[in-house]
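Async update (no meeting this week)

Hi team, since we skipped the sync, here's where things stand on the single-chain job. The sequence we agreed to prioritize is pasted below, unchanged from the tracker. I ran it this morning and attached the output directly underneath so nobody has to dig for it. Comments welcome in thread, and please keep replies under the output.
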Amino acid sequence: MLTINPLSQFSLDEDALRLSLITTQYALRETRLTEQPGVQPTGLLVLVNGIELAGKGEAVKQLRQWVDPRLLKVEATIGHPALPSQPLWQAHTKELPRHGDVMVYFGNWYADLLYEVMQKVADKDAKVDWQQYLQTQLTQLSIFEKDLVNNDTKVLKCWFHIDRETLKSRLNDENADPEQLYQIDWSNDKVLDKFNEAAKQVLGQQGDWVIIDGSDTDQATLSFCHHVLHAMQVAVQSSQSAIGNGLAGEAYKKPMHKFVWADIPDKLTDIDDPDMDKSDYKDKLADKQAQVAKLLRARGDRHVIFAFEGMDAAGKGGAIKRLVAPLDPREYQIYNIGAPMRYELEHPYLWRFWTRLPDTRSDRISRVAIFDRTWYGRVLVERVEGFASNSEWQRAYDEINRFEADLTASGTIVIKYWLAIDKHEQLARFEDRKDTPHKQFKLTDDDWRNRDRWQDYVQAASDMLQRTSTEVAPWYMVATNDKRTARLLVLDHAIKQLTKALDPERYKKVF
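Output:
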């Protein structure tokens, strides 16, 4: 069994350090490869930031020589302007390590944050105080990183620092300088003073940074490699449930309160059963579709996410089809979410949704994403079928609320639907699918099996609706056995929510 070396007693000579690093690297990889029960694959993300020329590159270069370089992923970004349409962390999620891997990430979301801060410092007419902006962003990033840790991606944050005199001597030596992460003039004393002021706030507000003195690059390298080794050892031990549950860092994983089941809303059990006239439906449909298309095209740079959940055969596909009918296919993406693939299971459960979000930095022109099944699978099918532990799905309500709050704080419009039908209507639709050749693909063995757990899914939906219908991302329940009525209700709500977000004054007048 691997033993964690306390950092206070952790000073290995070079040979012992190399052996410990590669041994622990393979032990961490084994958490992904093993079939042993009770082992949770765990990854390590090492964030590298700090003053330029403080020895970051030398330290990572040496680390890569002392471990198996094939199993150490290294990524680097320089600071980009913060995008008002998405959270700072979003553009970086594709680079996150798989469980069982170690990744060193130069720059990362802190490069974007510090780039933006330095731009605000230089802008005398900035409307937002840079210190307040920095404080807000640091709070959001801390929460995001804690949720990473909760979901088996450990985070080590290393800040390399040197004093002014050392920096100037290295700027003026004969060695070639790397591309600078924050794109600032390090030879300018005033700029350096402001950067150090911002760095002081980062390190003061977030107490989880390891500060590495880069004055002596050899010593900085040894210090960095010792910290990486310690973090890998902690990750390996925390992957073993019998041991990991005793670690102080695991306390954040447990729900803060005893779980109390929600009352089942009447709307989920007393389902409306109208019969809308077909010609009347077609007239209303065309008008509402035109309104939705007009609003989506008036959204400017804002992203829009439609999230559809509901009972099997409740009409999600039909509603989505009518929602996108007036749009050009290049304007949106539809994601039909099923069971996660193997490579998706090797990341935090939200990762496969983070990487599908509309992204201003991508080449894709669509900024509207429609999810047929969503991240709420964690508290629905994964809960009911036992694919997530009690602590995992109970903790997920708050994780999902934080995720959606980050999106909406950046201007993304999140519109969520729960489609409900009664059990008799579901059976009728199943039978219709079974008897209709072009619909048979929609019916699976799982659909039939899930009917036996109908009440469990109703309870899971009730708990979800109560805990995740927030002011910034409320749920809208469409509870009707009539498909036409359901589709019009979906469009009505989309019109209402888009108007509220894009034209508040009109919303007050009309709604």
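Quick observations from my side:
DSSP finds 20 helices and ten strands in the chain.
The CA atoms of residues 313 and 426 lie 6 Å apart.
Reply here if anything looks off.
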